[in-house]
Write a structure and sequence with these properties.
Helix content is 45%, strand content 19%. With 280 residues, the chain is of the alpha/beta class.
Length: 280
């Protein structure tokens, strides 16, 4: 990984999230709010409900810091569901940093509609080069966005740099199992245009090397199969309606790609959960 890899990943992420097809799919199937893996109370639960539960669980890790005096940096903030949850419930200020402008435009509109635009600032920028000085934020937050990075060591270095002393970092990410062969997930991740996923051991090791304390990982990998089964089911069930919203080529690609994620989960090749650590 390096500058060239990071630049390629940024271009891919900007292209991926900047299309009408992706926008419509996430709005229709995922609910257009919390675009990340869900924690399911029931295997038939709506994707959006389970995805919001993930936000609540992540917030519980840093609830002691969240409040009107707290400023959160949300890296890869997407459509802004987590940012609105944090601002709405805890009245904290949120800087929502995201590389693609179309989701950011929707994010800003929804913030205004919900009366939260005074608490949330949406910034179009890369999390590889966070445009803020050191020790700017009480909490650094992210949900299933680091998988899009082409230089994760630099990304984590940047995230640690902008944390205040005693600041906390909490994030989820799609990962490969530590035991998974390097090529095992290539077919599944091709839709995201990334070379490979990180592993839990990579995050533990890198965060520790950066001097972060109390590095913890709540392993919720058991949720992955349910999540991708639900996404596949919803996409198949809504295929007719989706056909009026997204291109035939994109829909066909989804119907071919989502079963690959299900297969990867069945083979125990993936990991997912909540990381939490603290800057000394």
């Amino acid at each position: 990984m390096g500058r060239e890899s990071a630049a390629r990943a940024e271009v891919a992420a900007r292209r991926y999230y900047g299309t009408d097809d992706v926008d419509a799919f996430y709005a229709q199937v995922w609910g257009g709010e919390d675009i990340h893996t869900g924690v399911y109370a029931d295997p038939c639960e709506p994707v959006g409900v389970a995805s919001r539960r993930t936000v609540e669980l992540a917030a519980s890790k840093v609830a002691g810091r969240l409040g009107p005096a707290c400023t959160v940096l949300d890296l890869g903030s997407g459509y802004g569901g987590p940012a609105r949850y944090l601002a709405g419930r805890f009245r904290c200020k949120v800087v929502a940093l995201n590389i693609s402008e179309p989701p950011n435009e929707r994010h800003r509109r929804t913030n205004t509609e919900q009366g939260l635009d005074h608490l949330i600032e949406v910034v179009t920028a890369s999390f590889q080069d966070i445009p803020y000085p050191p020790e700017s934020f009480d909490v650094v937050w992210s949900q299933d966005a680091f998988c899009h990075s082409g230089d994760r060591p630099r990304l984590l270095t940047e995230a640690a740099r902008v944390l205040k002393p005693q600041g906390e970092m909490v994030f989820t990410d799609l990962m490969a199992a530590d035991t998974a062969p390097a090529e095992a997930l290539h077919a599944a991740v091709a839709r995201l245009e990334v070379d490979a996923f990180a592993t839990p051991s990579f995050y533990r090791r890198t965060l520790t090397d950066l001097g972060m304390h109390q590095v913890g990982f709540d392993d919720h990998s058991d949720q992955l199969l349910t999540h991708y089964l639900r996404l596949t089911e919803e996409t198949v069930q809504q295929a007719g309606e989706l056909g009026h919203l997204i291109s035939a080529a994109y829909l066909e690609g989804l119907l071919q790609n989502l079963p690959l994620w299900v297969e990867a989960c069945c083979k125990d090749l993936m990991r997912w959960g909540i990381f939490h650590c603290r800057r000394p």
